[in-house]
Amino acid sequence: MSEPNRTPDTSCILVCAGNASRMGGINKILMPLGESNVVGRSMLAFEKTPDIAEIIVVTKPEYFDAVHQEAEKLGITKLAHLTEGGETRQQSVMQGLRLVSKDAKYIAIHDGARPLVKPEHIALTIRDARVFGGATLGVPVKDTIKVVDDGLITDTPHRPSLWITQTPQVFRKRLYYEAVDFAMEHGLDFTDDCQLVEAIGGKVFMTRGDYTNIKITTPEDRAIAEVLLQ
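The chain above was modelled as a monomer; its predicted structure follows.
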């Protein structure tokens, strides 16, 4: 967990720039959730994590005012910047990277649509990133997974080695910048930040979280999140 006397040295990039295509066009980050909304609860989790020095929210410009208002309502003090996203997730993260403080040593990238992440799990992921250079929150797969090609099962991967990857994904800043440079130089665009670091041979530790850290992608997910909050 966080060391009590450690100076906060981790910048959080909260990615909230998706098109909500699976939500029927409904803006999921501003959907009510408990006493706040989706993005508000995500910001609050990082606000309560001692290692986090600043929060950078990447979203659509038309949502800037609403995000600011929610941050003020919740007493968020670490919100440093809001910026517009790009066409892909990786491009959106890069927009946030441009605003990261020069004093930051680590970068934590989190899906804004994962509002139930716990501060203690964020802190554990940062702790593991300090050791390995990179770490991501995740949980073991519960179900048997099949590889299917043209409707036919072709393989059954060994279940104990399979994990569901969540966020935050935390990296040493220098390592992540090196990975971004490599991706840009080779025209690569990933949907997962761990893949960036893996592409340059970096090692990423899987930090065990819990199954409540769901991503809200459909209307049913919000209903589940409400139940989990209770």
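The first helix runs from residue 38 to 47.
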